[in-house]
Amino acid sequence: MSQGDVAKKLGWSLSKMQRIEGGEVGVSLTDLHALLGVYGISDHGEVARLTADARISRRQRWLIKPEYRKYLPPALRQLIQFEAEASAISAYQPVLIPGLFQTPAVAETVLSWNNLGISDERRRVLFDVRMQRRSRILENRDAPPYELVLDESVIKRHIGGARVMAEQLESLLDVAQLPHVTIRLVPFEKSAQAGLSGAFHIVTLSEDEDDAVLYSEWYETDRILHDSEDVLYFRKLFDQIRGSSLSENATRNRIAAEAMNLRALLDD
Q: Alpha carbon of 69 to those of 4, 60, 191: distances in Å?
């Protein structure tokens, strides 16, 4: 059937059908079930899966402003969607403070690097979305448990100068006090091999550990992986990296010491 055929059967306009199939609007549950009837989809498992996807999709549309969507990579849009449904999040970062943990000053510095080659409008959108994710996950009492492991080099890499980085580390200490956030450092002597994996997030979506996705990122690209074997590999890798990390208390002490060293460099 063509789009026009389906629209005619449902009494819809052709433009409505095109907007749904083009991803310009979310599909309501009522419209989804009407479509499934036309397409002859009656398997209970398939209907349940598509219904769950539709709920997530519409939640994603609410989380991301329409005018922002074209500026965000598809994998990041999916990550935001999955974060809204997460029951737990685990993340490893060997290079930088992760975006949603960044202070506004550090986020502006990172997004202003000239070699990124992004427009001012896209930079503004990425900054806004980064701050919104921070608010949704770190400042929300109902947010899922978030376990972050950092390479020790992350706190030694002074982004934006001594003052900006000192404020970032002090902010990280504040975040580490939140009941749903755990932060650990992998010390230099144990971090080389772990760092080769690159940065990644494991977003668990229910009590079943197999119900999870993997978000991995590099300098100019990122991706979402759904395959259970990929997720399991990185889950085991995360457990191994975490096993090499310092305790939460020792981590806070090292972050505090680095923040004090940076403060000592300032004139006032």
A: 27, 10, 36
- CA–CA–CA angle 222, 154, 217 (5° rounding): 5
Contact yes or no for 89/204 (Cβ under 8 A): yes
The two beta strands, 199-204 and 146-151, are: unpaired
Helix (H) or strand (E) holding 223, with range, is strand 222-225
Rounded to whole angstroms, how far apart are CA atoms 94 and 218? 11
Give the residue extent of every domain in the chain. Answer: 3-63, 67-265
- In the chain, pLDDT over 90 holds for what percent of residues? 59
One-letter amino acid for residue 61 of the chain: R
Residue of 222, 228, 188 whose CA lies nearest to 204: 228
Per-residue pLDDT tens for 193-211?
766 778 999 999 878 777 8
Query: Which residues share a beta bridge with 181?
Result: 146
Question: What size, in residues, is the chain?
Answer: 268
CATH code of domain 67-265: 3.30.870
Residue with tokens 């449902």: 10
Residue type, 179: P
- The answer to whether 45 and 67 have CB atoms below 8 angstroms apart is no
Q: Is 2 helix (H, G, I), strand (E, B) or coil?
A: coil
Q: At what angle do helices 29-39 and 44-63 cross, to 10 degrees?
A: 140
The reported pTM is: 0.76
Structure-block tokens of residue 253: 């002490």
Q: How far apart are CA 42 and CA 192, in angstroms?
A: 52
